[in-house]
Protein 1
Amino acid sequence: MSEATRIVIVGGGPGGYVAGIRAAQRGAQVTVVEKDLVGGTCLNRGCVPTKAILGSVEAIHKARAGEEFGFKVGGDIEPDFARIMERKNEISKKLRDGIQGLFKRSKVELLVGQGRIVSADRVEVETTDGVKSLAADKIIIATGSEPAELPFFDFSQPTVLDSTAALEMEQVPKSLLIIGAGVIGCEFASIFSELGTDITMVEMMPQMLPLEDKRLAKQFQSIFRKKGINVMLKSKVESVADYGDNSITVDLEGGDQVTAEKMLVSIGRRPNTQDIGLEDVGVEMDQRGYIKVNDRLETSVEGIYAIGDVNGGILLAHVASAEGLVAVENCLGGNEERDLSVVPSCIYTMPEIASVGLTESQAREEGFKPVTGTFRLGASGKAMAIGEDVGYIQIVADEKTDKILGANMMGPHVTDLIHEIAVAVRKGLTVKDVGDTIHAHPTIGEAVMEACHDVHGESVHVAS
Ligand SMILES: Cc1cc2nc3c(=O)[nH]c(=O)nc-3n(C[C@H](O)[C@H](O)[C@H](O)COP(=O)(O)OP(=O)(O)OC[C@H]3O[C@@H](n4cnc5c(N)ncnc54)[C@H](O)[C@@H]3O)c2cc1C
C-alpha cells in the first residue's frame, strides 16, 4: 500500500479547515496548524459574529414594529447589548466546536501554535510545549488577513477601533464615525444605527459600496439617509485633531471636523504574510504583500499552495473554502484551476444586498448589448406580508443570446436568492429558462421570475 500524502495546512480559517477536511476525505494525512481559534476571521471576527449581532438587531427591529404587525409588548423595546454580544460569542463557540468535531471524525490533526515554513517539505510550529517540526509532502498556506490600518491613526487609543475591536465593544456608543463605506463599514452602520448610535460615514469614493451597481448604491444611500445615517462621499480624513478620553475629533480635507465617541476604521484588509518564512523559502509576493499563485493556486515554490485572503483574490469566506478544495485536488495529483468568474457577493445590511455576474455597465464595457428586467418588491405580496417591501431584483441579460449575465438585488433574503442567478450565469441559462421555471407563490423568489419576464417586457405584475 502506498503511503498517504502528508499535507500541512497553516491557518484554520474557512480556507484551511475546509481544505483539511477534504484532504482527509481523500485519504491524506493532514495537520492543520492554527495559532488562535479554528474558524479564523470568518467565524470569530468576521462573517459569523456580525451576522449573529445582526440577527439580534433584526429581532429588535421587528419587535419595535409590533403595533403594525398586531401585537403589543409592555414598555419600550430596549436592546440588552451584553446579551447580544454573549449570544454572538455562543454562536461562534458552537461553530468552533463543530469544526473540532469534524476534525476528529475525519482524523485531521489540529496543532495549536504559530506555524513557520522552513522548507518546501517542513513546517515548524511554536506551541506551548515547544517547537514541533512537521514533515510535509505538500503545504497549503491559509493564513488569511487582518484589518488594514491607516498610519496616521493611533490604534492604541480606546476610541479608535478596527472591525475586530468593534466586535468586542462592551457598550453601544452614542456616536460612531465610520471611515470607509464599503461592505464592512455598511454592515456595522446598519447594526449600530438600529441600536440607537448616531452614525457618520466618511468615504473617499463618489459612491458608497463602490463595487456595486451605481443605481443600487444610490438607492441604498437614500435608505441610509432616511435612517438618519450621515454619509459623506468624496471625503477624506486628513488628520486627527483630538484623541479625547471619551471622544475623537478628526479633520476632513476641506476643513470640516467630525467628532464621535468612537471611530471605526474599515478601509480594507492586509495579508498575514509576515514571519511565516515566505522569504526564506522563496515564496513570491506581490507589491501589496499578497502571495502570488497560479490558477492551480500553487505559489512560486513547487508543492506550496496558498488559498483564501492571503493570495489576495476575492476576500470572501466562500472563495477561501472553494480555493481550499481546488488546492487539495492539486496537492493530490489533480490539475484543477480556480474559477472566480461567478462569485456571489452579499452584503448583510437592512435591507440586504446581493449581486453576481455583470452589472449593466460592466456588461456594456465587455461588449455585450445588455437588456435588463426589474421587479420592485413594493409589488410583492410576500414582501408586504413580512413588512419588508423596500428593494428590487434586477436581471442583466445579453440581448443577442438571451443569456443571463448577472443580477443585482436589494431586499429581504436576497443573500439566499442570489444563488439561483449564480447557477444561471455559470451554466449559461437564458432569461426564458429561468422565467419559464414555475416559482412558488407567495415568495420573494418569484420576484426573480417576474424580473426575467420584465426583460422581455412581459411581467404580469409590472405596469409598463
Ligand atoms: C467584519 C467582517 C465581516 C465579514 N463578513 C463576511 C461575510 O459575511 N461573508 C464572507 O464571505 N466573508 C466575510 N468576511 C471576510 C472573511 O472573513 C474572510 O474572507 C475569510 O475569513 C478568509 O478566510 P481565510 O481562511 O483565507 O483566512 P482567515 O479566516 O483570516 O483565517 C486565517 C487563520 O490563519 C491563522 N494564522 C495566521 N497566521 C498563522 C500562523 N503563522 N500559524 C498558524 N495560524 C496562523 C489565523 O489565526 C486565522 O485563524 C468578513 C470579514 C470581516 C472582517
Protein 2
Amino acid sequence: MCVFGISYASPYFLAKAWNIVSPCRHLYVPVWVSSRWKHTKSQQYKAVIFEMGGVLIPSPATLAAEWEFRNSLQAGWLWKTILSGEKRVAWDRCMLGELTFEEFAAVVSKEKQNSNIIKPYLQAMTSQLKYQIPAMREAIQCIRAEGLKTAILTNNFWFKDQSFLPVEKVDFDVIIESCREGIKKPNPEIYKLCLEHLKVHPTESIYLDDSGQNLEPAAQLGMITIKVGDTNTAIQKLESLLRFPLHGYVYGTQAVRKDTDIPTNRLKEYLQTTLGLSSGEPLTLREFSHGQSNFTYHMWSGDQQLVLRKKPPGKLLQSAHAMEKEYRVMKALGSMGVPVPKTLAICEDPSVLGTSFYLMEYCPGRIFKDPTLPGQPACQRTEIYSAMNHALCQIHQVDIHAAGLDDYGKSGNYIQRQVHTWTKQYRASETHNIQAMEQLIKWLPENLPTQEKTTIVHGDFRLDNLIFHPEKPEVLAILDWELSTLGDPICDVACSCLAHYLPPDFPILKGLNNCDLTELGIPSDLEYLTLYCDNMGMNPVENWNFYMAFTFFRVAAILQGIYKRSLQGQASSTKAETAGKLAENTADLSWMFAIREGFRKFKSIPTRNPNSPVRKYSTWNSPRSSATNLLYTFSPNNHCRHLVSVPKGHLIVSPEGLSPRIQELYHQLTMFMDKHIYPLEAELTDYQRDKNRWIPNPRMEKLKSEAKANGLWNLFLPLKTDPEIKYGAGLTNLEYAHLCEVMGRSLHAPEAFNCSAPDTGNMEILLKYGTEAQKEQWLLPLLEGKIRSCFAMTEPQVASSDATNIKASIVEVGDSFILNGHKWWTSGAMDPRCKLCVFMGKTDPQAHRHRQQSMILVSMDTPGITVVRPLSVFGIEDPPGGHGELTFENVRVPKQNILLGPGRGFEIAQGRLGPGRIHHCMRLIGYADRALQLMKDRVKTRVAFGRPLAEQGSIMADIANSRIEIEQARLLVLKAAHLMDTVSDKEVASEISMIKLVAPSMALHVIDRAIQAFGAAGLSNDYPLAQFFGWARALRLADGPDEVHRAVIAKLELKR
Ligand SMILES: Cc1cc2nc3c(=O)[nH]c(=O)nc-3n(C[C@H](O)[C@H](O)[C@H](O)COP(=O)(O)OP(=O)(O)OC[C@H]3O[C@@H](n4cnc5c(N)ncnc54)[C@H](O)[C@@H]3O)c2cc1C
C-alpha cells in the first residue's frame, strides 16, 4: 500500500483500510467505521415477504381465466369445479403435503365429467407457470441490495417428488412452504413461523399476496400488507413504503444514498460534450456497494452503461483519493494489454460535480466474494485461481518505462518504507501491548528481503477485486487501483493469499483455512506462488514466509486502527472486544510466519563455519544490555515466579514474555489446574492403590473431556514438526516448556491434557515417520485420546542403555514380519486402552551397528504378546499404565507396519529423542517448584525450639539453594527448548543431554530438602513429595542413565 493513504486517525484512512480486508463492508462499517450505510439504519422495514403464485410467478387464476375464455366457459368455472365436493378436501390435503399434486390430479380425474378440460389445465398449471416475473425478481434484488431480508410464504404442493417452487431460491433468506410445514394460509401460525425465521417483528415486515383472504391474518398480526393485482402497481406501492427504487438493478449496486447523491444536470451536459451522449435521455444512477472508498456509480444513459468514480466531497488529504493517479494507471495499463475497465474521460472541473471524477465503460461479469467459490466445480475453481494468477502476472510484467509510469511511485526499498509506515500507523492507534506486534516491529526490519524487484503493484490484489467473464474463467477487469504504486510484486502475491490463512468465519474476509483445498480444486498458497513464479519465469521465492508475515502485520495494524476507533465511537463493548481480538490474532498469525521464516533461515545456515564462533547458539541472541526488564509477578495458587525476566530477545524466560495467545493458554491451564486437578489429586492417588487400579479411572476420562473442551489438548506437538498446525496447537517447544512446567506440578495432570509419556513421543514418531495409513490407524485415535500406546525397547537380558545391544528379532516372512523378544519397563503396556506398541528389534544382525535395528507398529491384541507382570518403582506401580514386562513369541505383524523401512530403527530412535525427550525435564521443574512451594508453606506454620522453622538458618539455606537450583535448571531447559525451535537437532544435542542430567538431579535435591522440612509427613502419601521423589529418581535412568548423557556431552565438548 502506498503512503498516500495514511493519515493518522483519519476517518477516510480507516474506511479505506477497512476495505483492504473487508469484502462486505456494509455489514460492519455502520458499527465500527462510519455511518455511510444510511438506508438500513433509517429503514423502518426489515423484511419483505412474498406469496409465490400471483406475486412471484403468474397466478393460476389468470391462467384459468385464459383457459375459460379459450374454451368459452363461464368466468370462474374452472376453480369452482375443481374445488367442489371431495375435491376441495383433496386440494386442502395437497397443500398440506398429505397428497402429491399427481394424487390430487387423480382424484379430480376420477370424475369423468369435465376431466377433459380440468386435467390439461392442471398440467398447464405446473408447466406454464414455471417462471419468475422479471419485474418482481428485479424488485427483490433491489430490496436485498439495501440489506433487507426477503422471504416466500406460500401455499404449495409436492410435484414430481419435489415441492413446487419455480423461483430462484438464492433470492430469499427464508422459504416457508405449506406442503413442508403441514399448515397453510390463512392459519396465523404459518405467518408467525415465517416471522420467527426472519427474526423480525410483524410491524417490521411487508407482506404481498394476491388473495385478500390470505392478507387478513397478516394484517391482524401487524404486518403491512399489499394486495397484488397488477405487478407494476404492487411494486410502486412497495417502493413508496420502502423509499428506494425497485427497478434498474445492476449486480453489486444499491440505490444512491442521500449523502452520496450527485446532481445530474451538469453531468448530462458534460456527457454530451465529452462522450456525445444525448442529454435528452434519462440518467439513472446506482451506487456500487462493494470494495470502494471513493464513490463509484453505475449509470444508464439511454441504453449505454457507464461507471463514474469520484472523490468524496469535503476537505481531503492531498494524496488521498487521487482520481488522476487511478485514471492514469488504468489508462496506461489498459494500453499495455492489462485487463482493466476501459477509461473514457477524466473531469477535474469542480463546477460539474463538486470534485474531480472519471468515467469508465461498465464491464459486466462475475465478482467472487467468497474465496471457496461455492457452486463451482473443482476444475473451474482451479481455472479461476489460475486466471487470477495470470492477471497478476500481466500487471507485474508491464514495462514501467514503456507504459510511461517511471514516476508512478518511489523506486526501491518499498518494503522497508512500508514497514516503517505501518509501524507508525500501529503506534498511532496502539491501545495496549500486543507482544506479537512488538516482536514483529523488531523482526521485520531485521529480515527485509535483500533483493527487491520493482514493478507496478496493485496494492490490494484479491479475488473480489476482479471481474470475471460471465461464463469463462477469464479476468475481464482488475478493479480498485487506489493503492497502486511502484513496489515489490511479491507483496501482491502474498496479498492474494491472505484468505488462505483466515478461518471461514473470519468476520472481515471469509477465509480458506481448514478447507480441503485439494478437494475444492483451489491451489494452496505455495502452489499459487509456484504458479506465479512459473508464469513470471523467475526463481522460487525463498522468503515467502517473510512476505506473509509482512502482509498480516499490515492487516493487524489496520485492525488495531479499527479497534481504537471502535473504542472511541459508539460500538458495543462486545463488538469493540472482537475487533481488538482480531488485531491480536492477526498479529499472532503474522508472528507464526516470522517463526517459520526463522526456521527456514536457520536450516539454510551452513553447519560449520570455521570463521564464526563455535558456540554461536549458546549465548543470548541480542545484546545483554537490552535483553531483559525485571518484573515481579504473582499468580494464584502457587504459580508465582518471584522475580521474572521479561525478555526482549527471543529466549522467553517467563510466561509474561509469551504471545497473547500462549499467555491465554497459560492462564487457562493454571486455572484448570486450580479448579480441576489439585482438588482431585488425593482421590486420584488413592485410586492408584485401589483394587480397581488397573481399570482406567473414569474421573480421568472426565478431566480429559473438560481439558479438550477448553482447548487444552495436544499442546505438546511442536510447531516445527507440525508447521501446518494440522494436529497440535501450534506451540513452539519454548512456549510449551512454560506450559509443560505447569502440568508437571501434578503427576496426574499430563494425561488429562493428552500430553503424557510415552504417547507424546509415539505420536511424534508417527507424525514424522508414519505413512498416511499408519497415521490414520494410530495417530488420529491417539491425538483424540481414545487409545494409548507403549514403546518397547529395553530388555532384561542386555544393558539397554546401549540400544545396539538389543536382541529382539524382526524377521521377514512372506508379507509379514515375525517378532520375538523379551522386553521390560514398557511404560503404559498394562493399560487396557493401550492398543499400540512401538517395538524395536533387529531385522539384520549382520548389518552396520546402527543399521541392524528397525521399529515396527504392533497392535497390542496381536496373538503371541504376553504381559508377564507389572514392575514397580520404589513400590509404586503407576497404574493403570504401569511398566510392563512383556514377551513377544512369534508375533505376526503385517509388513506395512514397519516404520520408515528395515534398518532405520536407530534413525527413528534419534528422532524420538526429538522434543519429547525434554518434556520430562520441563515437568521436573514443575515437580521441584511445587515441592519448594509446599516446603515454604509448611515451614512458615511449624514451630520448633521456639521459632518457626522458616527462621532456622539451615532451612533458609535449603530454601535459597532450592530456588537457585530451580532457576538454573529452568533456564537450561528453556534454552534447550529454544534451540530445538531454532537450530538443527544435531546442534542442540549437547544441551539436551545436559538438561536430562541436570533436571532429575536438581529435582531430587529440592524434593529431598522439602521432604526433610516436612518431617515424616513428607514420606507419606498425604503429600505428593514422596511420589515426586520416586519419579525424579527413576528419571535418572528412564530417559537414559546419567552416565550416558555425560558421555555425550563430553564427546561433543572434546570435538569442539
Ligand atoms: C520408570 C521407568 C520407565 C521406563 N520406561 C521405558 C519404556 O517405556 N520403554 C523402554 O524401552 N524402556 C523404558 N525404561 C527403561 C530405561 O530406558 C532403561 O532402564 C535405561 O535405558 C537403562 O537401561 P538398563 O536398565 O538396561 O541399564 P543398563 O544398560 O544395564 O545400565 C546400567 C547402568 O550402567 C551404567 N552405565 C551404562 N552406560 C554407561 C556408560 N556409558 N558409562 C558409565 N556407566 C554406564 C549406568 O550407571 C547405568 O545405570 C524405563 C525405565 C524406568 C525406570
